[in-house]
Amino acid sequence: MRAKNYFVGAAFALLASGMASSAMAQAEIKIGEINSYSLLPAFTEPYRKGWQLAVEEINAAGGINGKKLVVISKDDGGKPADAQTAANELVSSEGVAMLAGTFLSNIGLAVSDFANQKKVFFLAAEPLTDAVTWSRGNKYTFRLRPSNYMQAAMLVEAAAKLPAKRWATIAPNYEYGQSAVSVFKKLMSEKRPDIQWVDEQWPPQGKIDAGPVVQAVAAANPEAILNVTFGADLVKLVREGNTRGLFKGREVVSFLTGEPEYLDPLKDETPEGWIVTGYPWYSIKTPEHDAFLKAYQAKYNDYPRLGSIVGYQTIKSAAAILAKAGSTDPEKLIAAAEGLSVGSPFGEITFRKIDHQSTLGAYVGKTSVKDGKGIMVDSSYKKGSDYLPSDAEVEKLRPKD
Amino acid sequence: MAFYVVQFLTGLASAASLFLVASGLSIIFGVTRIVNFAHGAFYMIGAYIAFTLTDRFAGAFGFWGGIVAAALAVALIGVVVEMVLLRRIYHAPELFQLLATFGLTLMVEDLVVLIWGPDDLLGPRAPGFKGAVDFFGQNIPSYDLFLIVLGPVVLGILWLLFQRTRWGVLVRAATQDRDMVAALGVNQKWLFTSVFAVGVFLAALGGALQIPRDAVHHAMDLRIIVEVFVVVVIGGLGSIVGAFVAAVLVSELNAFGILIFPKISIILVFLVMAVVLIVRPWGLFGRPEAPARKTPGLTVNPWRPLTSNERLAALAVLVVAAMLPLVAGNYVLTVGSEIAIFVIFAVSLHFLMSVGGLASFGHAAYFGLGAYGIAFLAKMAGLPMIVCLLLGPLLGCLGAAVFGFFAVQLSGVYFAMLTLAFAQIVWSIAFQWVSVTGGDNGILGVWPEKWAASPSHFYWLALGVAALVTIALRIAVFSPFGYALRATRDSALRSEAIGINAKRIRWTAFVIAGTTAGIGGALFAYLKGSVFPDNLGISLSVDALVMVLLGGVETVSGAVIGAIVYKALNIWLVSQTDLSKLVLGAFIVLIVVVFPKGIVGMLEMLAQRRGNASPPGSALLAKPIESAE
Hints:
heterodimer, A: alpha/beta, Rossmann fold, 2 domains, 7-stranded mixed beta sheet, 5-stranded parallel beta sheet, 14 strands, B: mainly alpha, ABC transporter involved in vitamin B12 uptake, BtuC, two-stranded antiparallel sheet, membrane (chain B), transmembrane (chain B)
């Protein structure tokens, strides 16, 4: 049972490191970061590069109020229960000042509930579900990325201008897909009471049987299609749809497809003219973004994905919150974060006091193919603050603390 | 009308790719009895290698040559795996090979990311099959037509191979009775190796042929493996025609099912399997298995209860474990609680698997039901924690009583697969019934009350319950009921002859195991403060199997050690490295080779060789020390 001794050793090592770290705490501030590195490397690798760049920049500029910033990163394997184990380790053993990260909605919610229970500040980076800031929001949790609702509202703005009246939807059969479709339908029907929803398809996430799905949608003969699938499902859907002519003469509105993570794998099979949300890093010409792009490319010799932006901005925001609070006390961090405005590669963003959602926006544009690669054209930045419901509505959605 | 024809053809095309992979699995299982969990991994490697080859060598020759070369290359890898790894463990307890192939699968998932990078890869379209064929205004991709033709062609080739060659005769004979084939002087080694190679070739070919339609990525294996198992079981294990019919059945039901119920895909195959197995216990084309000659009980040393000294020692170690909160911090205590909970879970499955000889592939269902029971009682009824802990596991009990009734009508792999089907059905209910279960966003805020909230109190609670459960199940093993259960495991015929009602005994065991798992789930809900459909999922069921097998399926309490080692290692590795799957997989493979009877099984054997008298107790003895970590 050599393994046993090893674990006794490991346990003591953990204890020892816990003690050592409290002694060194004056010199550095720690952030605990959790994400699905092993399950979703396509998204989390650029994300990691993004936050590593941010840490480097912050420390080169003298750290946070003179203290060195350290990010301790943990993998959650894509499981909510494991994410909580990691969160617990970060808080109890590593003594981090705050938690940050997560990609999947259910993991974001699990960590947010943990943060609420243990009274720890949590900055959710990527989970999209509206529940994080609304129906299951809590005072310890903030969120960076534009929520499902915001992305839907941005797309609806463009989609409502289309003449199409008969719509079909294709979305992965889980919470993200379901809420994306329901918000889109609701907002769309408000703007355009004349449209009809003629078909909906709910392939299981990651397991789409694309042929029958495409065929079934085509049979309903819609004039426009809303797509929420992404990743490998999107590739299969696009390939079958192209071959079977599903997209010919039909408008398509699609969540997230313009993000390099999902657009790049489509290569020359990228469909033309889809209205998408995304991140056209090649055509953003603002000084803030230029600075980010230059630094990122210099460090990694690679182009950024949306994950890079999210990772970078998560740590930049966290550092700004810590600097303003001047303390690691969670209550002071909350007070500092509420209403805080920070710069980002997309321009200034604000963490709203009312629901702890940041006003980071997204780019909306159309897909196209250039040199055998998928790109976004005619894109424009949509500020997050313009696509959120009124304060009165938000108050109704969010439980009182 | 044209639409329905096209939808039918589309279903056939989906069936063809499913069939290729399933036929390979079916052949391998039929002959070697290996539940080859790595079949999906071979499928995935096939796709990756085919991507590399077709990317480098363009043109029709490059493409088709690349596909075949990729399948051959993977078959070669399969041969190496069979010779180096599986050959060593054919004589290990049933299902132990599952552990080896599971370890391989874990490793492959990380390896492909290391080799090919994290991005989804888009393979080229097949030269000559890029477009679509017009059928009364409907488009059918010509590649689909190619696949529709390919399916029956492969079926035909396999049929010829099995019916018209000497090798085929041997394979069929081995499928029916491999001991007899060995007794007749056939070199089993090479027969097994060649069968494994053919099976892997088919899997890799299936994967390679997906590249014109799919994206190549590192989760392809999980996407297909369960479905393929289901298809094989619906068709009847070892039956190639069955696999073909089942693939067509499942694909067509899906193609037409989504027209009426767009959300059906997620659960369809499991529904079909449950119905088929209840109506036809050996699948559509399967035949009842011949009575096994080797019973698991024969290889075991007779089990015996602990001596009084061993009991005292176990108690002492438990006391030491209970003193952990004096030295350890919150994190270590929480991990300790989690490990104690998984000890409960593993011990419950172990009771079913080792004592009852019934390997469940869906044991997480009862763990998860216990957790959901807590969530409902605490969140909706607002009951106090003690009441919840007492009543919550009853949901697991209820589930086990209902599903167990059907499951115990079957045995062996069919039993395992029916439990898997039930677990998936429960999972999909939890996943889909958003208004009650919150769907995949789960139920949050199920935190323990003040008296149990501190990590040390919760640790004591979990440790205490784990100790009680382990003791209770040990008592059950050595009770008259336990003896009767072991009798049904060792010889169904003889136990029936002495008047034991096997089905009722097994059903009772199933309910006991399900309720116990529910207790674990109940504690787990409070430990995590939330419940997700994950808690009912396949990966948790697989974890439980791995823990039991790792500890040693032929021991009285090996699962305790298995759970501690596996869970502690898993938590530690996930915390230390992003490549935890690679390291964990390698560790499992190593264990399989070094300890073919599981950790505790091997320790017992070593102790016996030395003439040491105290080994069987080691399982319980070592437990509390380890749960302390």
